[in-house]
Amino acid sequence: MKIKIILLLIIGLSLNTMAQNPEAMAKYHFIEAQNAYGNGDNNTATTHLEDCIEALTKTNAKIEALYTNIYLSKKEYLKAKKHITVYFEIAQEDHSDYMKMISLSTTNENNFKKAEQEKIVELKRQADMGVTDFSNYDEIADFGSDNDWANKIQSSRNSTSFIKSELEKAKKYKSAQGKARLAFFYLEGIGIIESENWKDDYTKAENLCLDGVNLKLSLACYIYARTKYGMDSGEEAYFNLLQIADGKIDIADYAIGYMYLSEYTDEGTPYKPTLGLEYYKKGFGKLKVVNSEAASRIASSIASAYSKYDNEITRDKTLQLEWLKKSYNTFPNGRAAFSIADFYLYNYKNPQYNISKSEIGKWYQRSADLGYRPGMSQVAYAYMKGYFGYSMNKNLAIQWYKKAANKGDKSAIKSLKELGIDYIPNKG
């Protein structure tokens, strides 16, 4: 008992020391980011990097190098490129990661070009097969076909027969692509340039763009962004929207919000975080009834926006927690539960929240029960150490480590090995 009390005092003193020492806190978050990245948990890794920057009040070469590796592993090549650019702006040539970053820069550029080309080839292959309704191919990001189609329409404005033919095709298709193309006609005013009812047509286009919650960053989002929100460069807006394709939230408001909230922006896609947050909230309001999972993800993004320091968005922990809970309540999921548990853990000593250790454990347990890998590992650790209101129970710890291992958690496999168990995931 004395030993346990002494250990708790040491842990408490260590946490207090870190809180008073920004560099120590930054080091802690950077190491946690490295560990999370090593376990394939890129979202947790980026969260710790954000906390690291907050503690330091600036970025550094090591942070930018790790960001690059994270986004490369996620195949988000545009984001990786932006962090590569920052790295070379601040790093000296003798920096430990310098040569590796030169190599990663080349790799990233090649991967981006290859991914773009593969998607174009696939779209052309489908077109050659006579597939005009792409509703079954919404996993293919539109790098080429829709842009080419739009350009062809633009250049054929004077060909009445061609425009009418394409308009009828667009009306016929029920897929997301068909709706997007029909929206294009309305928004561009093709065939209705002299019409006095252009506002009605514009409204029709807006509804088409927002119709069908599962749009896969189709042309509708591009047109919606470019026309409705005054993008200076349509191509830039479209390109940025395409980068969200892996986010699996496929509605225009989210896409616009994401674009405006991007930490780095290209010409034609201005950084407007307050406006971005507004569109996030609009997207949440529209989606929570028809697609609770997508709405939950938007709520999580809103919480993230309130967790960072920004010139326009005031960091607000109360709103951060409120939106984390909205994320969980809208669609109960392990990631949201884990984020709430982490929030309470990092703010445990804040009297505003009056949270108990067992309450923290309850949220980690919810995360684990919902199949979230980091939650499983945290519950295992809690059983192993008797943390967060859990009674020490080695057998239950092993069970949860195995569940986490079956989900691909390398740290869980390592923990089992330290306990003398050579566990083979899904076969143990």
UniProtKB/TrEMBL annotation:
User: Which SUPFAM superfamilies does the entry mention?
Assistant: HCP-like (SSF81901)
- What InterPro entries does UniProt report for this protein, alphabetically? Sel1-like (IPR006597), TPR-like_helical_dom_sf (IPR011990)
SMART domains according to UniProt: SEL1 (SM00671)
The membrane spanning regions, by residue number, are none
Q: Give the residue range of the signal peptide.
A: 1-19
Q: Which UniProt keywords apply?
A: Signal
Q: Return the protein name.
A: Sel1 repeat family protein
